[in-house]
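Entry for the shared binder. Reason: the reviewer on the internal report wants the predicted structure included alongside the sequence.
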Amino acid sequence: MNDQQLQRLSAQIGERLKQLDATVTCAESCTGGWIAKVITDISGSSAWFERGFVTYSNHAKQQLVGVQAVSLEQFGAVSEAVVREMAVGAQREAQAEFAVSVSGIAGPDGGSDDKPVGTVWFAFAAPQGKVEAYCQHFSGDREAVRRQSVAWALQTLYREFLIN
């Protein structure tokens, strides 16, 4: 997905959030704020996006969005447990109706047999305590994995949580 397509998708998300009178936040690790960047590229996005969290380090995940140390120790930063806690923590801290979180291994280093480069976990928090997590495996270089992660996160937010 190119930059124009990401911007169009972000604008659609914004229009839907305005219809719902709702806001979204994000807690990002491997995408390093790219989701927030794409959202804030849209003029007027302050009506539906107040803040995002770049929680690249484990310490930031704990300090900014309340990820538990035991979750990081037991499962690692790239795990279902951690992204669920990231999404719920971001939703709570930003007082947003919706939250998306992402943590993955973009490469070129850092992969393992269990979690190869391109492994990315996502979680989405929605009203009434709904939290869903997904694991995806992307290919390509660091840039490609990160771009695919941003696109997948925004597409899933829109399709599965905003228009359903």
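Summary line for the report: The chain has a mean pLDDT of 96.
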